[in-house]
Amino acid sequence: MLRLFFILICLSCSLNVGCSTFEHPLSPLEDAEIHQEAIGSWYASKGKDDEGKPTEMFLHIGLPPASSIKPKESGYANFNEVKGEMPDDKLWVNNMMLMTITSIEKDQRIQSSNMLVFPTKLGNNHYANVPSFHGNQVITYKILKYQINGDELTTWLLPNDQAIGELIQAGKLHAGEKKDYVADDTETLRQVFVEHDAELFPPEKSMTFRRIKLWKDE
Fold it and tell me: What gap in Å lies between CA 157 and CA 79, rounded to an integer?
């Protein structure tokens, strides 16, 4: 589960409805505001390996180092080269957050990835839209959920595949022409996510991180 979390959140699954890919985000990028409470470093223990060594995951949420980037030089997981050579036009990222995930696996290998996200708040729930770019053009989105309770950050890697399928069968969501993404517009997605959040993000699919502090509370 934890290894799958790392793989999926780094956008390495293929673009299909089973991987919960969306044509539109939960809110427009131009309306995004940085979620200051989420900024910081977070830690989750994954137990110990067969030799008794700890396996861990670290999550850092911050801001991109510059207001614009060149896709070819970025090193972010958001950029998609499926359509051929990637354009190198500048991409403005001043209203996005930078998420860095580092995982120490059971064999003590370290995996790390960076990706750009922008937040949406619906009621009391927080989501992160993860755009997949070709150059500076968005192709599709992933949508994660997260909740902050004091020094705890609970994350859901992606909406539940089964719930997405059932919503498509019920006609509340609609697959794209090639059945490889959810095609509904932002307004429809927002309504569905509000009404079906519990099915889309069940508690057993979550992971909880603790905030890393560099000082002691008095």
Answer: 19
Q: CA dist 184 to 71, 98, 124, 134, 188, Å?
A: 27, 26, 23, 21, 6
How far apart are alpha carbons 77 and 71 in whole angstroms?
10
Q: Which amino acid is at 89?
A: D
Tell me which DSSP letter residue 134 carries: E
In angstroms, how far is CA 55 from the centroid of its own chain?
22
Would you list the DSSP string of 97-129? EEEEEEEE-TTS-EEEEEEEEEEEEETTEEEEE
- Side chain identity, residue 206: S
Domain ranges within the chain, ordered by starting residue: 2-211
Residues 39-97: tens digit of each pLDDT: 999 998 866 555 656 568 899 999 998 888 877 666 787 876 555 555 557 788 888 99
pLDDT mean over 126-144: 89
Q: Answer for the pair 141, 130: CB distance below 8 angstroms, yes or no.
A: yes
**Tens digits of per-residue pLDDT, 175-211?**
988 777 899 999 999 999 999 999 999 999 898 999 9
